[in-house]
Amino acid sequence: MSGILVAPVIVLFVVSCAVAGDSRPGRTVNLNRPGVLEALQHENPAHYQKIQEIMVGLYRHPDSEVPRWIQTTFNASDVSYAPVLLTSDPPQRRLSFALDNTHYQAVVTLTHLKPEIIPAN
């Protein structure tokens, strides 16, 4: 009889822990899609303003400092700005971060980078 009561309690505990531990943002917004920024400007002006400041500020900070800068300045979480350049001309990088309960992602064009040829030794 006690085994019948223990099993549901364990299942309930495991499910509760899984749900409580899932702190990922609820909605993902691709900032590169046409019309997204314009819609965001009307739907959530505070996020729109922060995103505009983030995009401008990317060029003012060394790449290694960008994630911490976004976290501390804009109270963002789950920031990713991996040091991997996409092979395009000009080069691009993936940026993602969460503001409140929304996760934003974008492919950012790095027009400030100057290409250079480094000979292999």
What labels describe this entry?
121 residues; alpha+beta; 20% strand; globular
Written overview of the protein:
The chain has 121 residues and is an alpha+beta fold. The chain has a domain at 26-109. It is 41% helix and 20% strand. The protein is built from four helices and four strands; from the N terminus they run H-E-H-H-H-E-E-E. It has a four-stranded mixed β-sheet with strand order 1-4-3-2, with helices on one face. The model is unreliable at 5-22 (pLDDT under 50).
List the helices and strands and how they pair.
Layout: H1 2-21, E1 27-30, H2 36-43, H3 45-57, H4 66-74, E2 77-80, E3 92-99, E4 102-109
Parallel strand pairs: 1-4
Antiparallel strand pairs: 2-3, 3-4
Q: What's this entry about, in short?
A:
The protein is of the alpha+beta class and 121 residues long.
Strands ordered across the widest β-sheet: 1-4-3-2
Instruction: Report helical residue fraction.
Output: 40-55%
- How many extended strands? 4
Low-confidence stretches: 5-22
